[in-house]
Amino acid sequence: MQVMEEGLALIRRFEGFRANAYRCPAGVWTIGYGHTSQAGPPAVRPGMVVTEKEARRILGEDVAHFADAVGALLAREVSAAQFSALVSFAYNVGVGAFRSSSVLSAVNAGRFQDVPARLKLWVKGGGRVLPGLERRRAAEAELFMSEMPPQAGRDVTGVPKSVETDRQLGRAGAVVGGAGVLAGAASALPGWVFVTLIVVVLLAVAGFAAYRWRRPATGKVA
């Protein structure tokens, strides 16, 4: 199974592009979109420079390796979105950590709804919670749940997507329903009665507007 473009975009977003080789917080030489020598060629060395185009090519190769490793560890069939989220997680924490994680255990046990909570346990670096990792885990959780049944889907705020969708549809339905009632009432009247009603309403509105325009000011401020 291949990683979706949404998964690749998520990895690029949180890894960030670095043209010049640098040491990550763990002291490992890194370049491009989080590429290290452990992920495969090219080997990263001090002073190394890559273009963004080269970095994207390297990322594609790295992700393919991680996708193979993740796929080999899965005992359950997953959707493309779920697979992409898991590969992003493994890319960040490493295949070894992914293999022993409760994230993989939940997936292989078929407890897909537990995965977002399991992902959000992996937000520490150097013994402290990192906001960047919190955001990444939330994004991975959202991607993982994006193809689940509506009642199970939740966005990063914790509000079920199905609930928000129902709210929006409800508001739209109220507007459409109100228009439908008026249209139904109009169709039940004879044509000349309907036209007469329209004229009366327009005259009433015009008369009220003229009255407001002629009325002297009271000096009061609303």
List the SSEs and their pairings.
Layout: H1 5-15, E1 18-23, E2 29-32, E3 35-36, H2 52-73, H3 80-93, H4 95-99, H5 102-108, H6 115-119, E4 124-125, E5 128-129, H7 131-145, H8 161-188, H9 191-214
Antiparallel strand pairs: 1-2, 2-3, 4-5
Helix pairs in contact: 1-3, 1-7, 2-3, 3-7
Overview of this protein structure:
By secondary structure, the chain is mainly alpha-helical. It has two domains: 5-157, Lysozyme, CATH 1.10.530.40; 167-214, no CATH class. 59% of the residues lie in helices and 7% in strands. The chain is built from nine helices and five strands. It has helices at residues 5-15, 52-73, 80-93, 95-99, 102-108, 115-119, 131-145, 161-188, 191-214, and strands at residues 18-23, 29-32, 35-36, 124-125, 128-129. A three-stranded antiparallel β-sheet has the order 1-2-3. The chain has a two-stranded antiparallel sheet with strand order 4-5. It starts with a helix and ends in an 8-residue tail after the last helix. The model is unreliable at 150-188 and 211-222 (pLDDT under 50).
CATH class of the largest domain: Mainly Alpha
The major β-sheet equals: 3 strands, antiparallel
Q: Tell how many strands the DSSP assignment holds.
A: 5
CATH architect. name of the largest domain: Orthogonal Bundle
How many structural domains are formed by the residues? 2
The secondary-structure class comes to: mainly alpha
Please sum up the structure shown.
With 222 residues, the protein is mostly helical. It has helices spanning 5-15, 52-73, 80-93, 95-99, 102-108, 115-119, 131-145, 161-188, 191-214, and strands at 18-23, 29-32, 35-36, 124-125, 128-129. Helix 1 (5-15) runs parallel beside helix 3 (80-93), helix 2 (52-73) crosses helix 3 (80-93) and helix 3 (80-93) runs antiparallel to helix 7.
